[in-house]
Structures are given as structure tokens and as C-alpha cells.
Specification:
Blueprint (H helix, E strand, L loop, with lengths): L37 E3 L7 E3 L8 E7 L4 H11 L5 E6 L8 H14 L1 E3 L5 E3 L5 E7 L4 H8 L7 E6 L3 H5 L17 H15 L8 H4 L3 H10 L13 E2 L1 H12 L1 H21 L1
Parallel strand pairs: 3-4, 3-7, 7-8
Antiparallel strand pairs: 1-2, 5-6, 8-9
Length: 278
């Protein structure tokens, strides 16, 4: 998905900010090292050849999230296994998440300072071409979201789920909202919790919903989410609609085949772990 670049730019910082852990490269230090190979033909007049330099631009998606559990679980594998093409940075507040207003304040400060402090307390620098998504549930924030979205800020994009992020997880397994339709009879303030419990019941025979493992079904979720999407005149998703397919399509468009290789590697690691545990 083609997302327009942001209108701010930060030159490469001096020094290396901390990554997700001590062994994780920083967001804007994930660049190919200059390398060249020279060879000479064993002839009277040797000719030197240089291997073409290949550089891959590393883009970053900053996910500023109202929720800090399921949302983080969903993208944590991408977060911890950055490719040369993409780095995902998760921002939220431990133990309580962020309200929509708090999210906007967080983003405005980060743009002003040209860096985010991520969920783990590490610095992640903003650069030209990076994208900022604000991920929020409608839940009890419907009016607050409408007010904030009445004056759009092109430097970031809202990604809203109604009533909650669990709608996105639901579409990884089901192609329509038939199994959660009773949510319309639940008071708005309680729909999010009802949906979480309902999803657990629906997937009980499969061990519940593992948000991280659901990532492997992202293409299915995109199809189902788009097929059931609608929104109000104020651009707020209607009940059982989510805009998470926008983020998902963006991730796949950047990673391309790298995504499937990452999933393949994760599955191989899981199989190896299980075999060793026996």
C-alpha cells in the first residue's frame, strides 16, 4: 500500500541508539555495510571488477497503541525480527495503555523531538519515509475519536477497530461477523470485554487465540476485514469493522517475500523446540 512520506526528516544521528535489546540493531542502523570484491583475470593485462553495491532502504512503522497486550503480542515477532526492509516499533504505556488524546500528545512530542521512546524504554529515531499509525479501539472513546479526527493531521494516520482490536483477530479465523453479532445488544462501554471473552470461547477448542501465532494468517484477515468493512461519515468504523488491514497491507508491501521467510523460520524454530522437549 502506498503511504505518503511524512514531511519531517532527521539526519542520521551520531552514535547508535539502543534497540529492542542489547543484540538488536537500531532502526536506522539496519543498513548494508559497504562491501566490494575485486578479482583479477590471470592474463597479461589484468582487469579489476567490483561487485555492485546493493543497498536496501529500511523503513519504520511506529505503532502507537491504546492497548498494550493483544496489540503488542500480535506484532512482537515482527518487532523482534527486524528485516533490512522494515522495522516495527511499538509505543504504549505499560500497565494501562493510552487514551486517544494521550496518543496524539505522544506523537506530537515525538515529531518535535524527532524520536520516540518505545514500549521498552529505548530510543527510536524518526526519519523521512517512516510512518506513524495510531491504533485505537472505539470502545468508550467514540466521541473523543470523532473530535480528534475532525481536524486531520497528515503526519500520522488513525487505525480504529470497533469495538476493539479483537475484531481484527476474529477475521483471521472467520469470514463474517455472524459469531459475534450479539455484541450489538451489549452496552457500548462493555462491548470490548464481551468480545474478548467471546473470542476466547469461540477458539476454546484450539487453545484460545494466540495473537502472535495469528500473524501467519494475516492475508486471510486482510481479505475478511476488507469484505466486512464500513464506516460512518466521520470516518469511524461501524461495529464489526476494523482498519487494521491498512497496517497489514503496508507491512506485506514492504516485506514482500521476507515476511513468508520469517514465518517459515518461526515455524521451524517451533518444531525444533517441540522435538527437543519430547
Amino acid at each position: 500500500m502506498d503511504i505518503e512520506g511524512l514531511d519531517y526528516f532527521k539526519s542520521e544521528p551520531v552514535g547508535t541508539p539502543i534497540g529492542l535489546d542489547d543484540n538488536t540493531p537500531d532502526i536506522h542502523t539496519l543498513k548494508d555495510k559497504d562491501s566490494s570484491e575485486e578479482c583479477e583475470h590471470k592474463i597479461d593485462n589484468p582487469i579489476s571488477y567490483s561487485k555492485p553495491e546493493i543497498k536496501v532502504e529500511t523503513l519504520c512503522l511506529f505503532l502507537v497503541s491504546g492497548g498494550e497486550k493483544r496489540e503488542r503480542d500480535y506484532i512482537k515477532y515482527l518487532e523482534a525480527n527486524a528485516s533490512r526492509r522494515l522495522r516495527v516499533v511499538f509505543i504504549s504505556k505499560k500497565g494501562q495503555g493510552l487514551t486517544p488524546t494521550q496518543m496524539v500528545k505522544e506523537v506530537e512530542e515525538a515529531i518535535d523531538e524527532e524520536c520516540f521512546l518505545d514500549y521498552y524504554g529505548h530510543l527510536a529515531y524518526l526519519a523521512k519515509g517512516d510512518t506513524i499509525y495510531l491504533i485505537s479501539d472505539v470502545d468508550q472513546y467514540g466521541s473523543e475519536l470523532e473530535n480528534l479526527m475532525s481536524d486531520p493531521d497528515e503526519r500520522f494516520r488513525w487505525i480504529i477497530s470497533n469495538p476493539a482490536f479483537e475484531v481484527w483477530l476474529y477475521y483471521h479465523f472467520y469470514d463474517n461477523p455472524e459469531h459475534i453479532k450479539d455484541a450489538v445488544n451489549i452496552p457500548v462501554a462493555h462491548r470490548s470485554q464481551w468480545l474478548k471473552e467471546r473470542l476466547h470461547v469461540l477458539r476454546k477448542d484450539f487453545g484460545g487465540v494466540n495473537a502472535s501465532e495469528a500473524l501467519a494468517l494475516i492475508e486471510t484477515a486482510i481479505i475478511n476485514s476488507k469484505a466486512n468493512y464500513s464506516e460512518t461519515e466521520d470516518k469511524i468504523p461501524t461495529i464489526f469493522s476494523t482498519q487494521m488491514h491498512i497496517v497489514a497491507e503496508h507491512i506485506l508491501s514492504i516485506l514482500e517475500d521476507d515476511f513468508y521467510q520469517m514465518i517459515k523460520n518461526r515455524n521451524a524454530m517451533a518444531i525444533e523446540f517441540i522435538s527437543k522437549a519430547k
